[in-house]
Write a structure and sequence with these properties.
Strands 1, 2, 3, 4, 5, 6 and 7 form a 7-stranded mixed β-sheet that branches. Strands 16-15-18-19 form a 4-stranded antiparallel β-sheet, with no helix packed on it. The protein has a 3-stranded mixed β-sheet with strand order 10-8-13, with no helix packed on it. α2 crosses α5 (208-221) and α6 (366-411) packs antiparallel against α7 (415-459). With 460 residues, the protein is α/β, with parallel strands linked by helices. It has 7 helices and 20 strands. The two termini are 87 Å apart. It folds into 4 domains: 2-163, no CATH class; 224-290, Immunoglobulin-like; 298-358, no CATH class; 366-459. The chain has helices at 2-22, 44-54, 66-99, 106-124, 208-221, 366-411, 415-459, and strands spanning 25-29, 33-35, 61-63, 137-144, 165-174, 177-186, 191-201, 226-233, 238-242, 255-256, 259-266, 273-279, 284-290, 298-304, 309-312, 315-319, 322-325, 331-336, 343-347, 354-358.
């Protein structure tokens, strides 16, 4: 039995949490009460709340205050306590009847007493229960009694709701003045406060609407507010509002916390704009912008022969010849045609308006041609590098024998040794000249092979 009770308790608790999470923050506008007003002013009873609401209808989300969350939690605990007490009352009645029952059984009587004791313990420990708090924010729902406005009540909707916020007021005629008062009753906190009280002339009565709605915004939203109104051309431009952390603000479409926001306006075919807006508490700011239409850039791409498939990355652009509108640079273009080798083109600038690509038959292996050209360049470059040591060595020997010859002539009169040294120096010098000629020839050949390799790689 005790396990069954726990299951019932959990079910009840989960139902409360679900209903709390799925509910809306209901705001009820009462018609104004009129005092000392003739029938010519009777329309104010309904139109005044409607005009105020028209300035509030963009508010979509209510943020619960700490006091509201605590109140909801206490009410949920109170409901659970009442359920516990009801359960305890039933057990006690059953207990009293069982004492005088003919079917009295001592073991069953003890079980019943144990259930009563456990129920008492649950009641004594109820404040320690982990009751999930309601969500910090819930959607706002407006309604009103008899107010003629489509935003207040949709056709067929039931107005008999339990309101969280009840807005009421009165208008009283005092000589040439009109005395206006507005109250807000918060049923969650069981409080009712006078938020507006003023006397104005009848001609200036509508001037109060802005002030009253300004005071109501903070109560309805549940936080200090700032308002951003957008005025863009074109009107269907997409607007993203980002806070100082870079996150997109997705809640109320015009009411925000005071602070700094980055505004991004964009539309396909137009140049996007970014701006920073700083708004203070209770401030309304209008953000205006006119997006400039992007200038169209048309790129022509032809292949010879035509009819080839053109791709930008993995996206197919069509069959050549192709006109590309506003291409993104840089991008890799690939041309494919059956019977021809694929050709690639790197598009780097929109100034390149006329692109022509010559395709080569796949009967020839152009990859092998390029590979051979590259190998030829590497071979020529290797020969050039191998020829360099001969020039250095021959020049060194020629210099050494020349130096020895000069020293021999100055210190001795041995003509035969001098002649030998002179002959060796001349021979190595001639070898040096020959090696330099070979170096230059191999270097020129290397340059020619390099140019040939680059040209074949670009052409093929």
């Amino acid at each position: 039995m005790f396990n069954k009770f726990i299951i019932l308790f959990l079910c009840f608790n989960s139902i409360f949490i679900f209903s709390e999470g799925s509910r809306k923050y209901n705001i009820l506008f009462e018609p104004l009460s009129l005092k000392n007003m003739d029938e010519s002013y009777s329309h104010l009873s309904y139109s005044y709340p409607g005009l105020i609401l028209s300035k509030l209808q963009n508010a979509k989300t209510h943020h619960f205050s700490e006091a509201e969350r605590n109140s909801i939690r206490q009410k949920s605990l109170s409901n659970i306590r009442n359920e516990y007490l009801l359960k305890l009352s039933g057990l006690i009645i059953k207990h009293d009847k069982y004492i005088f029952s003919r079917d009295f059984n001592d073991s069953e009587y003890k079980v019943l007493e144990e259930k009563i004791n456990k129920q008492k313990i649950l009641i004594s420990e109820i404040d320690q229960k982990d009751i999930s708090e309601p969500k910090l924010t819930i959607p706002i729902y407006f309604t009103g009694k008899g107010i003629s406005s489509s935003v207040l009540k949709k056709e067929g909707e039931d107005q008999s709701i339990s309101a969280d916020l009840i807005i009421s007021g009165s208008i009283e005629k005092l000589d040439d003045w009109v005395y206006t008062r507005f109250w807000v009753e918060n049923t969650i906190l069981d409080s009712k406060d006078l938020i507006f009280e003023s006397a104005v002339s009848i001609e200036n009565l509508n001037d109060q609407i802005t002030e009253i709605s300004s005071r109501l915004k903070t109560l309805i939203l549940g936080h200090p507010w700032s308002e951003i109104q957008f005025n863009f051309l074109p009107k269907d431009a997409v607007v993203h509002v980002l806070d100082n952390t870079g996150l997109i603000v997705t809640e109320d479409p015009c009411f925000y916390y005071p602070g700094t926001y980055n505004i991004e306006i964009s539309k396909s075919g137009y140049i996007s704009k970014e701006m920073t807006v700083e708004i203070s508490e209770n401030e309304t700011k209008v953000v205006s912008a006119v997006l400039e239409e992007q200038k169209k850039t048309i790129i022509s791409l032809q292949t010879f022969p035509s009819g080839a498939n053109l791709y930008s990355g993995s996206m197919w652009l069509g069959k050549t010849p192709v006109l590309i509108e506003n291409p993104l640079a840089p991008s890799l273009l690939t041309v494919k045609l059956e019977g021809y080798n694929d050709s690639k083109y790197i598009f780097t600038s929109k100034d390149d308006r006329d692109i022509r690509i010559f395709l080569h038959s796949d009967l020839m292996n152009y990859d092998e041609i390029v590979h051979n050209k590259r190998n030829q360049f590497y071979k020529s470059f290797s020969y050039f590098l191998l020829s360099m040591p001969l020039s250095l060595v021959s020049y060194g020997f020629s210099s050494d024998y020349g130096y020895t010859y000069n020293r021999e002539v100055l210190n001795t009169y041995n003509s035969s040794e001098s002649d030998r040294l002179m002959q060796l120096s001349t021979t190595w010098y001639n070898v040096y000249l020959s090696s330099v000629f070979i170096n230059i020839t191999l270097f020129i050949n290397t340059i020619i092979d390099l140019v040939d390799y680059i040209r074949s790689n670009n052409d093929l």
